[in-house]
Amino acid sequence: MNSELAQTVTLGNDQKSGILATALLVVDGVCKSFGDLKVLDGFSLQLGPGENLAIVGKSGSGKSVLLKCIIGLLPYDQGSIRVLGREIARLSEKELDLLRTEIGFLFQGSALYDSMTVRENLQFPLRRHREKMAGFNEEGLIRDTLASVGLEHTIDLLPEELSGGMQRRIALARTLILRPQIILYDEPTSGLDPVTSREIIELILEVQAKYNAAALIITHDMQCVRLASNRMVILHEGKDYATGTYQELNDWDDPVIQAFLKTS
To answer: Structure pTM?
Structure first.
């Protein structure tokens, strides 16, 4: 392994050397246990402006727990999580609710409201957070956001009238409607056929380019990691085992990394 590559790939505690002043999200030494089960054990990462960062790990490794800690749904035992410069553990419920308007969340199952049309699904967050979106024309914003995911023509349809891939796109539009600075993707290509998965990956890249939103992508899909992320973090035994680009980690002669990449 050459020295230039060795400087770009970080293993374990090597990456704790400093926090970027521009980071939108900083997870620093976070620990989370459920009884005797230690799920996160000193996990750290940093997410910069406009960056897509993938988190990969085995099923049950703590990826979803990490997301819940980041948005304040689960308290963490030790460490620090700062979103847009604010320590999550120190915020009141009202402050958390306000901060969450800057964090978009794309659920694995889309989580659209079945009884609402596409328009009504996008209206829901707008009307819940009227103060933030007061300067926008509601109908124009809805149509513009739907157009950005290629589905303006579905505005009056119900979720049951949409394919799985279309539902995923509408869910992303609902996430984008509040113009968040950070987007959390939870298995964005899970359960989709290869063609639709590729379309979702391309859409993630389009969102990154158009909105300059930073993204944390939880995924098992290595094609998604290769194509949609700027960097990746391997979550192994509760720790940020390695961080780098897909190619950098693929070239790194480490048995844990290689075993993971070859079986993912």
So the answer is: 0.86
